[in-house]
Here is the input.
Amino acid sequence: MDTESTYSGYSYYSGRSRGSHRHGERSRDRHKTRSKDSRSEKSVTINTPPAEPLLGDSAVRGEQVQDDNWGETTTAVTGTSEHSLSQEDIVRITKDLEDSVGLDCRRYFTLALAVILGLLVFLTPLAFLVLPHLLWPEKLQSCGTACEGLFISVAFKLLILLLAVWALFFRPPRAGLPRVFVFRALLAVLVLLFVVSYWLFYGVRILDSQDENYQGIVQYAVSLVDALLFIHYLAIVLLELRQLQPCFSVCVTRSTDGEIRHYNLGQLSIQRAALAILEHYYCDFPVSNPALLSASKSRAAKHLAGLKVYNVDGPGNNAAAGLVHSQSRAMIAAAARRRDTSHNELYYEEAEHERRVRKRKARLVVAVEEAFTHIKRMQEEEQKKAPGDVMDPREAAQAIFPSMARALQKYLRTTKQQHCHSMESIQQHLAFCITNNMTPKAFLESYLTPGPTLQYSRDHWRARQWTLISEASVTSGLKDGSIFLLKCVDFSLVVTTKKIPYIQMSEEYIDPKSHKFVLRLQSETSV
Amino acid sequence: MSFVPGQPLTAVVQRIQIQKLRQGENLILGFSIGGGIDQDPGQNPFSDDKTDKGIYVTRITPGGPADAAGLRMGDKLMQVNGWDMTMVTHDQARKRLTKKNEDVVRLLVTRKSLEEAVKQSMGSFPRQ
Here is the structure.
């Protein structure tokens, strides 16, 4: 191994770093040190620092910061920097607390309501059957086999209803939506009205008059259970089946880097459509990387900074709006006259960046392939024979990691992905690849292209709390041309809908015998 | 040279007489024909009207009997020895031209330049 050097824990700086907000989740107790004797004159010390993003908010700084991290030299970890919180972080923590408390309250309230309604629904038929026996047992006509048959049918229908309700409604909630789920509320009201009307009828006609025809009462209970099963069918159709057929094509654009995806949705309310889109977002959209936007921001800053506008007439002459207006007009005119060569710079910069990325990638691929050749899987028979220098996957990963660490870190820095992958996660991934017999190319794929947001750890999502911004009411249905926004802290998703057109198809019959062909020649004969 | 099916065709023709040349046991005329009612008229490079299924001269052997007699490439054969050539199949045309007991063929051919020459000489009364 020729690429051994000294590593140690990396430094991180305080201030506006999002990493410091999640200090509760870091495992501070995993400082493992392991020294390894090697055959070269340098000694290798590998410290595994806690899992942490390596850089803070580099988008704040305009240029590439040369920071020390796990591929390079050592630095000290100061105690104060880890625990400092900025004002922004404090505000965010309190907001999270408030929101979570509010949501929990609402969720428990709806859960309690649902449980009460469910109990009412299930116990009503049983009550209908049992109450006559309790209240006027002597007057009751005993009914024979017909009643017993009806008892069995009530029992099984109730069992089926119980299973169906469990399958449809007792699922862990996927999300907390801003407004009430209209269809569920309507169904709950319908069921309540239904049961209440049945009770009313029962109370007036049967309890008051103490009806002796028990078979009629049993049939009444059976009809209630039948009707409940039909209401459950209605619930399936309204809640599950209606939105399956695709009706709209929605176009989702991320506001920061313009990633566009298209999805097909059925007839949903705007909040349910937003939920479906967000679930697709986590699976499809590549993780948002603010470091990639710093270039365009710096260009924009350069445009603005190039000109300074002075008001020569002195203050108080124009109104504030007029002043701003004249200033912006002056700037636009000056910018038009100035010879702008920023497009040239952009072209050469991008070409240079492309070359650099390719060069680093080539070095990385070679380093990883070489590192993988140092590891060989031991067969079962060999394991029993030679228990010498045997390592489990994690140790093997740590053994070959130093030889590729530098190349990998340089590549990640060039493609501005270094904050998405911590050293711990890379070693874990390496151990995983070694365990599953993956090739070096398979190991590298997750670093060469940014994957969907879900594949990264929760710290890097940058998209946790979503706000739905819509001009139409969020419980109204999707319409052709409806536009709404899904905002999170860093960026927003702009959603536009288009209706799938009505298709008019006609039929044409072709007789199979009508397929006839002629030969078209053009021969030339010499005479 | 356009024609309307079912209507009599009028064209300005040139009379060409070709003496067949004996080569071994074959009598050759020295040109190649293309076209015919069983062929694809759209592939004919010499016809103006791409639905014309007549017999056209596609190649002339330089120095051969046809060349000497004045036949040109692109000519449409209207008659061969009195037999009509405007509505024949390719094989029928070949047979009419290669009869072993005839050593002279008299052709009536038409071409665009003939038509135009007549028009010019007739002035404002072009032959239809």
Notes: Residues 125 and 221 of chain A are 5 Å apart (CA to CA). The longest strand of chain A covers residues 492-499.
